[in-house]
Amino acid sequence: MTALVMNLILGAVTGTSYFNPGFAGQPILAGEGNTDSAVTVLGLMAGAAFAHNFGLASSGEGPTANGKIAVIIGSVVVAVIAAVNSMRKEES
User: Fold this and answer.
1) Other CB atoms closer than 10 Å to residue 77's CB: what's the count?
2) 32 DSSP assignment
């Protein structure tokens, strides 16, 4: 709500439209040459496809066994990476 109010105030003060209700005329970063946003969307779709294809995605019934195992493996990998990076900084 604060962002909406500030956008309306900025629009009134500067005369520039910071608020545009509706679907028409909205800025789309991927269409403006910002490849980061396009790569992010593609990465999200690839991650969702990977999770669903390998049974990692949860449902209304709760997390799957494969999903629980994937979270544990991911936590171990991140902990190992953190430990290795911590040891490197201590040696320097």
Assistant:
1) 10
2) G
**pLDDT, tens digit (0-9, with 9 covering 90-100), for 24-83:** 766 665 556 677 778 888 999 999 999 999 999 998 999 999 999 999 999 999 999 999
Compute the distance between CA of residue 83 and CA of residue 40 in angstroms, rounded to an integer: 28
In angstroms, what CA-CA distances link 41 with 8, 26, 30, 87? 29, 17, 9, 35
Residue 74 · residue 66 · CB < 8 Å: no
pLDDT tens sequence across 66-85: 999 999 999 999 999 999 99
d(CA 49, CA 23): 27
pTM of the predicted model as reported, rounded to 2 decimal places = 0.51
Cα separation of the two ends of the chain: 48
Backbone φ and ψ for 77, nearest 5 degrees, come out as: -60, -45
